[in-house]
Amino acid sequence: MPYILLTGGAGYIGSHTALELLNAGYQVLSFDNYSNSSTEALNRVEQLSGKSIVKVTGDIRDEAALRQLFSEHQISAVVHFAGLKAVGESTQLPLHYYDNNVAGTVTLCRVMREVGVKKLVFSSSATVYGDAKQVPIPESAPRSATNPYGQSKLMIEYILQDLVQAEPDWGMTLLRYFNPVGAHHSGQIGEDPNGIPNNLMPFISQVAVGKRSSLSVFGNDYPTPDGTGVRDYIHVVDLARGHVKALQYLEQHNGIEAINLGTGVGYSVLDMVKAFSTVNQVAVPYQIAPRRPGDIAVCYAQPDKAKRLLGWQAEHSLDDMVKDSWRWQSQNPDGYKQA
Ligand code: NAD
Ligand code: UFG
User: Fold this and answer.
1) In the chain, which end has fewer C-beta atoms inside a 10 angstrom radius, N or C?
2) Pocket, ligand 2, Cβ cutoff 6 A
């Protein structure tokens, strides 16, 4: 049976997707340079599934390594997670972000084209909607970006659209993730950020476990019900299952489709803090801090297209998200590092 290649397969979303793919009967090959992950995540996926993963260390910008990868393994489709994702860092290191994300994707597609593998699921982001004028956000909303990370995702979307326009025998999905949170129900795999977390859920979890003293809530003067930012948080296992559905869709279809992966429901920062502390019976001290530059007030998905095209919709509740985040964090206070 041919492999599904996961670039960045050892990362947060990649590892959860690897598990769902193995459970659905696919064979998985991960290609990762471990710049933001470790093999331990994949080892745990193997334990959870009772199946093995082929793990290759390499960089998507390394054309020779990719050629070798495709020549040594029969690959039917690629799920392309590999990329850098820290918005703040991207403003400091724009060339690094464009090289890694944009040049890396061009190199990957060049090799895929050469070897005739033309099915690609790409990790895009709701960041491509910029500060959307209307919520819920449909896939047809105008696109824009305000930082190099967002620009890199937008550029890649344009590049992939141009490629499919030129060569209609490609099949691609641009999966626009909203805010992935949570962890596998086992507590064995989860998000393991380096240093101080940028994102809300890992920060809340680290405060709850005592690694950080309190959460700064970035702004309480937004035009939202409680004044704090509203986002569409989606359980990472739902998100992972969306990739399985996208691959199944590509088995039947060519062309390119942008598809939101979100729940369609928005929660505020204070909703998240409250749910986390109430459901898990743990204190999450916080204080109100100034707005974070670049943040928007409200962002949530119009998720109907995923249901219509992929037969996918989010199934996990907010309680599941905060419970599973806490199980992972409390069982692995130092992430994969203690292993
Ligand atoms: P992650 O950092 O946990 O995973 C990315 C993986 O890619 C890591 O294992 C990293 O080592 C690897 N990688 C990075 N550059 C590479 C390169 N040049 N060659 C090979 N491997 C490389 O991040 P994640 O949260 O799992 O995100 C996966 C994808 O989804 C990213 O493209 C990200 O931009 C996108 N995304 C994430 C979010 C989110 O909030 N987590 C939201 C929207 C989109
Ligand atoms: N927040 C806090 N305190 C924190 C961290 C976050 O109050 O310590 C707030 C933010 O101001 C925002 C909300 O929590 O209102 C969510 O913030 P995140 O950083 O978790 O997520 P963002 O929506 O800002 O960004 C995420 C990804 C980006 C992606 C974007 C859109 O990190 O990569 O979703 O998909 F581009």
Assistant:
1) N
2) 85, 87, 125-127, 178-179, 198-200, 203, 215-218, 229, 231, 269, 292, 295
